[in-house]
Description:
The structure is a homodimer.
Chain A: H1 2-8, H2 11-23, E1 26-27, H3 28-34, H4 40-52, E2 56-61, E3 67-72, H5 74-109
Antiparallel strand pairs in A: 1-3, 2-3
Helix pairs in contact in A: 2-5
Amino acid sequence: MNDIIGRVADKWTLLILEALDENGVVRFKELSRLIPGISQKMLTQTLRQMECDGLVKRTVYAEVPPRVEYELTPLGFSLGEAFCGVWTWAEKHYAEIEAARKKFARRQRG
Amino acid sequence: MNDIIGRVADKWTLLILEALDENGVVRFKELSRLIPGISQKMLTQTLRQMECDGLVKRTVYAEVPPRVEYELTPLGFSLGEAFCGVWTWAEKHYAEIEAARKKFARRQRG
C-alpha cells in the first residue's frame, strides 16, 4: 500500500491529474505548457508511470509526425476525486500555512 | 497553491502524518522505526518542513541527552483527514492498479 501512496502522493502526478481532468484529451506539448516548471523528462517519466498504474490512457496515431494524446482513465478520474479533499484543504489553510512559515522563519533567525 | 500541494503531496510527509496520527507524541528514533525505508536525513528534512508549515509541533526537553518529541498540530490532523480519501482510494483500487501494472509490463515486452 505504501508504494501505491508513494506513487500517487507526488506533486507532478497531482498536477498532471488536474490538467487532464480540466482539459480532457491533451497532447504532450500542450500538457507541458499547462504545467509550469515541469521538465520534459519529468513529464515523460510521470506520464509513463501513470500509464503503467492504469491512471492515464496514451493513444498514438500513425501519422507523420506521429500524434500522441493523453487522457485520464476512469481510475485516473477517481484518483482526482480522492485528491479533491487535499486541494480543498490547501485552499482553506493557505493563509494559516503562510503564517506558520513566517513564524518559523522568525524563530530560526532567533 | 501548487507549492503547498507540492509540499504536502509527498510520500514521506504522508507516512509521517499517518505515524503521528496513530501514535500521538513520538520521539525521533521511534518515528524512524515506524516508517520503514526512510533515511535519517529524509526524516529530519521532512519533519523540519512539516514544522515550518505548521503541521508538526517539535518539543525539546532540556535533559542530558536532550529529549525531542514530535506531535501533529490541529492543522496536521486536518491534513491527515484530507488525505483519508486518498488512503481509502489506494485500498479500494489496489488490485486494479496491480493488474494495470502487469498489463503494462506485458505490453512493454511486446
